[in-house]
């Protein structure tokens, strides 16, 4: 019998598409379901309690409906806050997304790293721990931006936001004491790689950007080794917790990434 169970990607919005791309490149036959909690978006301005209460319940409903073989929490905010609770609630392998501080520390020459995430992510003890373990000899400067999440969503809807808004986001890192030495920026929110070109153009000096996408794709590949896939991946499904005009405006952006069917949870 052909195993057509999908891999389910979960985020508050479209950010998780930055994880879908490298996963698709590595697993071209896999079926993907993309789930966005549009009714709960944005996560970055929510409390830890709200996220920890909301995400495991939603994933339980999604797992029941789509019967995935594996779930990817394609969201740093949900992963850094609720990964243990999510794993406890589900009887499935779960891959999380956490800030790529380790790869950043491996390549930084100035030993000054910027971490760009949501406000909720950058305040997590999880980030302190990663910085201590993997970037002990680096200065790690953080900045949380809700506007950059909005900018990524708008870009995926086909809008072209004012470049000055990207400048303002990066000023939040570079204008901190010691910020002028930043040579690597961790995109610690899955939305941000979607606007990496705009960020690079806004940077006051050349910097390298890193994120967890490739590492997560390799992890998915390792966890599904030896499993069967259908001959063709079929239509990708994008499911939203609220499917209104804002979400419908994403139709072309989702379609070019392989998600041609839209549903509401
Ligand atoms: N994409 C998400 C992350 O990686 C969250 C964005 C938001 O909803 O604030 O953190």
TrEMBL record:
Top EC group: isomerase
Family: Belongs to the aspartate/glutamate racemases family.
Name under which the protein is recorded: Glutamate racemase
InterPro entries named in the record: Asp/Glu/hydantoin_racemase, Asp/Glu_race, Asp/Glu_racemase_AS_1, Asp/Glu_racemase_AS_2, Glu_race
A Pfam family: Asp_Glu_race
Pathway(s) this gene product operates in, as recorded in its UniProt entry: Cell wall biogenesis; peptidoglycan biosynthesis
Function: Provides the (R)-glutamate required for cell wall biosynthesis.
Catalytic activity entry: L-glutamate = D-glutamate
Binding positions (substrate): 11-12, 43-44, 76-77, 190-191
HAMAP family per UniProt: Glu_racemase (MF_00258)
EC number: 5.1.1.3
Active site (record annotation): 75 (proton donor/acceptor), 189 (proton donor/acceptor)
UniProt KW keywords: Cell shape, Cell wall biogenesis/degradation, Isomerase, Peptidoglycan synthesis
């Amino acid at each position: 019998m052909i195993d057509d169970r999908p891999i389910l990607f979960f985020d508050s919005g479209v950010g998780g598409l930055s994880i879908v791309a490298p996963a698709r490149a590595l697993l071209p036959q896999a079926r993907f379901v993309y789930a966005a909690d549009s009714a709960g978006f944005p996560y970055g301005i929510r409390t830890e309690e709200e996220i920890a209460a909301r995400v495991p319940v939603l994933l339980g409903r999604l797992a029941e409906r789509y019967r995935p073989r594996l779930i990817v929490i394609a969201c740093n905010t949900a992963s850094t806050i609720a990964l243990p609770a999510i794993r406890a609630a589900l009887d499935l392998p779960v891959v999380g997304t956490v800030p790529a501080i380790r790869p950043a520390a491996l390549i930084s020459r100035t030993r000054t790293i910027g971490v760009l995430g949501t406000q909720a992510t950058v305040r997590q003890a999880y980030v302190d721990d990663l910085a201590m373990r993997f970037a002990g000899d680096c200065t790690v400067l953080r900045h949380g931006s809700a506007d950059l999440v909005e900018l990524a969503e708008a870009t995926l809807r086909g809008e072209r936001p004012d470049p000055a808004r990207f400048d303002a986001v990066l000023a939040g890192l570079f204008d901190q004491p010691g910020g002028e030495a930043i040579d690597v920026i961790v995109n610690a929110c899955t939305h941000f790689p979607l606007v990496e070109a705009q960020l690079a153009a806004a940077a006051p000096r050349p910097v390298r950007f890193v994120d967890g996408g490739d590492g997560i794709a390799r992890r998915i590949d390792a966890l599904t080794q030896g499993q069967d896939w259908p001959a063709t991946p079929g239509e990708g499904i994008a499911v939203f917790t609220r499917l209104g005009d804002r979400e419908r405006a994403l139709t072309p952006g989702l379609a070019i990434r392989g998600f041609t069917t839209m549903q509401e949870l």
